[in-house]
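Need a sequence for this fold. Nothing fancy.
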């Protein structure tokens, strides 16, 4: 059998392709030339499975999505107290390119607006760092998080620097207030290079899944940051990632997220998944219109919301061979992540004998996990296998396989 998740993502993208509203970012000439029809999405689970759909190979500049990850690097390099002394953690309620300084301290309100992100870039590595070293630091960290070597798109960088007066003006203001220590031109150049790093939706999903895991890259299993740093970054994304629409986004969609003007959108659900989406046309807030809608659908279809009940990883999956039978077992409160793992294990199976799904130690299924589990059983039966369900606690009430038939009881 094949896991149905890529089909689901394909269908999700297809349902939104007709939305051609919005416009490419106009203020960076190179972005105004992007192919507006590109559309892609990828989901990486905390256990390291990636599902991608659409133009998943397309590379685009990371832009403002670099901000949460550069903030993480600044915390790792300088310590949280030093970073907090220069950049706040309050929502600004304003657009990404507003100065939004806190009265009294003159700190930028948060690291997700440009003023805060320029300040965070200036903190990288250490005091008096070489401008080149700061960009290398960002590039190295982003590559580790993505699990592959990334690179800077020089054309995008040059193109943005030609029109960077607004960011330069902000950097000069920050320097005049003593928030920025270094030369404003050098810091804005470095920040712009950081924004020009090329990524795919799969890279973004992997970077976010590392945050979801509390700092462990799900594929390489490398610890890249400590859990407290990952928590700080996810919290700030929840508070300020969507700028002036942050509250509406958090309540409705519930996936802490960060957008970029090239059309990327990254999202994270702790313990569960990292999500990347991309399409170049932007809404009036500078967020990708289709990527935003793709997240909205994922959230409602998959029950993925930060404050949905039992969002912790309280589930375990396993598979065992017993003679010619294969036993898949689940434990705990089963939600999307465990069900996806179960479907992967089922998809990898090359056995031909009986299939047993043992859920005698499952406390509950989320609605989507229930549907995914039954769909796996249905597909295995279509493959010609006899399927059994061991469910003494009735965790899967009415396990109809979708055609009025039921798995056998052992
Ligand atoms: N490099 C862009 C800027 O500084 C990033 C903005 C964004 O993606 N929202 O304007």
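Here you go.
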């Amino acid at each position: 059998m094949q896991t149905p998740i890529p089909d689901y993502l394909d269908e999700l993208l297809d349902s939104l392709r007709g939305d051609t509203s919005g416009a490419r970012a106009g203020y960076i000439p190179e972005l105004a030339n992007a192919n507006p029809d590109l559309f892609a999405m990828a989901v990486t689970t905390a256990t390291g499975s990636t599902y991608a759909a659409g133009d998943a190979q397309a590379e685009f500049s990371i832009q403002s999505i670099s901000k949460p990850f550069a903030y993480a690097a600044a915390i790792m390099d300088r310590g949280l107290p030093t970073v907090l002394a220069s950049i706040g953690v309050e929502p600004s309620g304003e657009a990404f390119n507003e100065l939004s300084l806190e009265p009294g301290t003159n700190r930028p309100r948060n690291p997700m607006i440009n003023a805060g992100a320029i300040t965070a870039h200036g903190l990288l590595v250490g005091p008096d760092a070489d401008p080149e070293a700061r960009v290398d630091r960002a590039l190295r960290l982003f590559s580790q998080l993505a699990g592959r070597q990334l690179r800077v798109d020089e054309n995008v960088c040059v193109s943005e620097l030609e029109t960077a007066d607004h960011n330069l003006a902000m950097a000069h203001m920050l320097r005049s207030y003593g928030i920025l220590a270094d030369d404003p031109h050098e810091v804005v150049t470095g920040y712009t290079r950081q924004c020009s790093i090329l990524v795919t939706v799969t890279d973004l999903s992997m970077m976010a899944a590392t945050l979801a895991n509390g700092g462990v890259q799900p594929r390489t299993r490398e610890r890249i940051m400590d859990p407290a740093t990952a928590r700080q970054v996810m919290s700030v994304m929840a508070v300020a990632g969507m700028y002036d629409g942050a509250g509406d986004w958090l309540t409705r969609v519930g996936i802490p997220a960060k957008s970029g003007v090239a059309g990327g959108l990254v999202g994270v659900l702790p313990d569960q998944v990292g999500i990347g989406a991309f399409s170049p046309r932007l809404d009036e807030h500078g967020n990708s219109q289709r990527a935003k809608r793709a997240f909205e659908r994922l959230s409602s279809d998959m029950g993925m919301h930060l404050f949905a009940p039992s969002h912790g990883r309280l589930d375990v999956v396993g598979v065992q061979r017993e003679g010619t039978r294969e036993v898949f077992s689940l434990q705990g409160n089963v939600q999307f992540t465990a069900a996806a793992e179960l479907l992967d294990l089922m998809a990898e199976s090359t056995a031909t004998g009986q299939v047993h799904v043992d859920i005698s130690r499952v406390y509950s299924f989320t609605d989507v996990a229930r549907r995914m589990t039954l769909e796996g059983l249905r597909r295995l039966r279509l493959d010609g296998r006899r399927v059994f369900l061991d469910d003494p606690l009735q965790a899967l009430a009415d396990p109809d396989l979708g055609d009025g038939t039921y798995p056998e009881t052992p």
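For context: The pocket of glutamine is lined by residues 63-64, 96-97, 114, 160, 167, 195, 260-261, 286 (CB under 6 Å).
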